[in-house]
Every structure is written in structure tokens, then in C-alpha cells.
Amino acid sequence: MISNRSKWFRKIKGNIAAVVLIGGVGTLVYGIYKASLFVKRITASKEYNYHQEMEDYIYHKELEARKKSNELK
């Protein structure tokens, strides 16, 4: 009985190794893909925040200029 199991295992040992290898590579590629999407999203949000901060700064300066011009009149 033990010898039958060892023959069976020897026959599929290469297939098991191939499935594990392909699964590992697939998991690695998927992880790299998800990490790249995460980094892309973070960099895009920082860029958006910089633009939003600049627009807010300009708007604030315009309001200050309007207040000063109204006070001078």
C-alpha cells in the first residue's frame, strides 16, 4: 500500500510543483499590480491636493485684495 502511494506521488510531483510555481508567480504579479495602483492613486491625490491648495490660496488673496480695495474707497 505504501509503495502505491509513493508511485502516485512520484507521478504528480512535477505537476504539483508546476501548479505551486505558477500560482506563486501569479500571486506575485497580482500583488505588484495592486501595489502599483495604490501608488498611482496616492500620487494622483497628492497632485490634486496641491492644485486645490493653490486655488484656495489664490482665492484667499483675491478676497484680501477686494477687502483692501473696498476699505480704500
UniProtKB/TrEMBL annotation:
* Transmembrane feature ranges: 12-33
What is the top-level taxon of the source organism?
Answer: Eukaryota
Q: Which UniProt keywords apply?
A: Membrane, Transmembrane, Transmembrane helix
Protein's recorded name: DUF3989 domain-containing protein
Question: From which source organism is this entry?
Answer: Strongyloides venezuelensis (Threadworm)
